Amino acid sequence: MTSTTHAIARWRDCMNSLPHLYTLVTVPVVGHLRDTIPDTIYCVTCGRPVHPWRNARLVIDVPFITEIFKSTDGTWFITDRLKNQLETLGARGYVTQEIPFEFSDDYYRWASIRNDRTQRQQPLYYLAITGLCDGPWVSHRRAGQCPTCGQAMAIVDDMETLITALLDDAPPPTRLVYPDTWHQEDLFYLSEPGPPLITERVAQLIVPHRPSPERVRPVHSTKAQHGHALTYADPHTIELYPARWVDRD
Ligand SMILES: [Zn+2]
To answer: Of 143-157, 159-173, 176-190, which range is least confident?
Structure first.
């Protein structure tokens, strides 16, 4: 074998050992933050997060049964059960911090409507996803670097384009990752703004194994990618969408 065919064979082996990927499009939004330190973690120029919260308090507004969920500002949280499972797995690309939490009046109202008498006592954890990879942009156009935080910025769509995207029922474009930018992270963002990606083994943890497929449904529209619809609408649904590896041109 020549060195070139060796290199190609190695590359094929490498591609074959890469895990399946999913975009973690939607998880339930179950509460809001208060007493945050610092006041904001979002870049004043481009709006993307620039560092994790150092401290915050979670107010839970709706009952939930998933192991991963968000607050209205888009911050991620996991249960102690999922935290332990991720640690057992040796998953990479995140840090956690225990978060104090409380229940609002809305929580008790929803719990009463849903006849839900469970109230969590186990610890909850703030999940900061630290993995960052790159790939070709599929939904946005690049607009250079943010002058304030240095992250890649996207050209902001005009209102007509945004509304068209919100009304579009076509599946979202598959997000793509360059393998040479990946360093075994199981949770990571891409340079293109959008939801994080997760590996197959993490997807298997967060997708409930109980036989209720309606709780894990494929994404049928681009709404979740464009609308940032962080509402309390559906506290039980996790939406995954396949992502994949792609070689550089
Ligand atoms: Zn910025």
So the answer is: 159-173
Distance 1 CA to ligand 1 centre (A): 49
Q: Which residue has the higher pLDDT, 102 or 116?
A: 102
Q: How many whole angstroms from 47 Cα to the centroid of ligand 1?
A: 6
Q: E strands, the chain, where?
A: 21-26, 29-37, 55-60, 68-71, 76-79, 94-99, 101-103, 124-129, 131-133, 142-145, 152-154, 176-177, 187-190, 197-199, 239-245
Reported as a single tens digit per residue, the pLDDT across 86-98 is 999 999 999 999 9
Distance 192 CA to ligand 1 centre (A): 13
Which of the 8 DSSP states describes residue 216? B
User: What per-residue string of b and e applies to 118-139 under the rule 16 or more CB within 10 Å gives b?
Assistant: eeeeeebbbbbbebbbbbebbb
Question: To the nearest whole percent, how much of the chain has pLDDT over 90?
Answer: 43
**What tokens appear for 150 in the block?**
């240095």
Q: What is the DSSP letter of 44?
A: T
Place of tokens 């599929």: 138
What CA–CA distance (Å, rounded) separates 19 from 76? 23
d(CA 174, CA 191): 15
Distance CA 93, CA 119 (A): 30
